[in-house]
Each structure stands twice: as C-alpha cells, then as structure tokens.
Specification:
Elements (H helix, E strand, L loop, with lengths): L7 H4 L22 E5 L27 E2 L10 E10 L1 E8 L5 H6 L2 E9 L2 E6 L7 E2 L8 E12 L8 E9 L1
Antiparallel strand pairs: 1-3, 2-9, 3-8, 4-7, 4-9, 5-6, 5-8
The structure holds calcium ion.
Calcium ion binds next to strand 9.
Length: about 170
C-alpha cells in the first residue's frame, strides 16, 4: 500500500493555505477512517437528538457542528477523534463555532482556549475569535490512535451557552 493512500483525500484540502480565511462556501471534506465521540452532546428542543452529535465535527460540512451538552458553557467538555489505524499527526485544524454565516457563528460559544492531547503530547492553544480554520500546531513523531480536544475557555455566544466546533481536519500519515 503506498504510504500516502490514507492521507491523499486530506492533501486535497490543502489547495489553499491552512490559515486562509474561510468564506461562506464550505470547503471542508469528510474525514475517512475516523470516529468521533464526546463527553456530552447538546440536545435542543424540536431538533433531532443527533443534530449536534460528535460526528458532525468530521462530516465534511461547515454547516453542521458538534455542540457540548453541559448546562453551562462547557469548560472541561471534550471531543475525541479515534483513528481506525494509528497514525502520525501532521496537522490538526478546527473551525470553531457553528454555522457558515457570521451571525450564526456569533450565536454559539466559540472556543478561546483548548487543550489538545495526542498520545503523550498535551498542548494548550489560544484561538482568536475569527471564523476560519485554525491550525493548532499539533504534530506527533509517533503514531497515535486518537486525539482529544478539551474546552478550556470560550468567547460567549449571543444566544445560549453551547460551545460548538463545526469541523476538525486532521492531516496524518
Ligand atoms: Ca460539520
């Protein structure tokens, strides 16, 4: 099997710079070979129970999101991505918030600081409150079977107390 076989679909997302501002046109891709779980999930009235499920953060759509389900803004809540095959992490990017318009983005809480863990690695990352893909600067020398992102602090949303992540993109090999 060629070394790039698992990473090829992810390479294709790098046609534009990783820190380019994302416009309203979704550009994320589904992440094959991964599964997502979370410490909690928001269940909103009159919405499907899985509307904000963890898998929404790796479904390739910026219109869908994982939202934590704690009663407050969710500090300490986490989302974890497990890999079907352990892999070295080359980059992790997240698109915080929920929704592809600025107004919807501002409605939910966005992550201001998170802790990212992968294997023995743990990294604290501060994020500006900007609606784009943010590179977390996370990579590993050794293969890992999962990564976890833990909410440490948030920018308050205009409505409710639900911290969301629209998409997580992982480059691995
Ligand atoms: Ca999504």
């Amino acid at each position: 099997m060629p070394w790039f076989s698992g990473a090829l679909p992810i390479f294709l997302t790098l046609a534009s710079p990783a820190d380019a501002v994302v416009d309203d046109a979704p550009r994320a891709v589904a992440q094959p070979g991964m599964r997502a779980t979370a410490s909690s999930v928001l269940v909103a009235k009159k919405r499907a129970k899985d509307r904000y499920a963890a898998e929404r953060a790796i479904d390739g759509s910026l219109s869908t999101c994982w939202c934590e389900g704690a009663a407050d803004v969710g500090k300490g809540e986490w989302i974890q991505i497990d890999f079907d095959v352990p892999a070295r992490i080359r980059a992790v990017r997240i698109y915080p918030g929920c929704g592809t318009t600025e107004a919807v983005y501002r409605a939910s809480d966005r992550i201001a600081r998170l802790t990212a863990t992968a294997g023995d690695l743990s990294r604290s990352v501060d994020l500006p409150d900007v609606r784009k893909l943010h590179d977390l600067g996370l990579s590993t020398d050794q293969p890992v079977s999962s990564i976890r992102l833990i909410v440490e602090d948030v920018y308050p949303g205009a409505r409710g107390q639900d911290t969301c992540i629209a998409q997580i993109e992982i480059d691995k090999e």
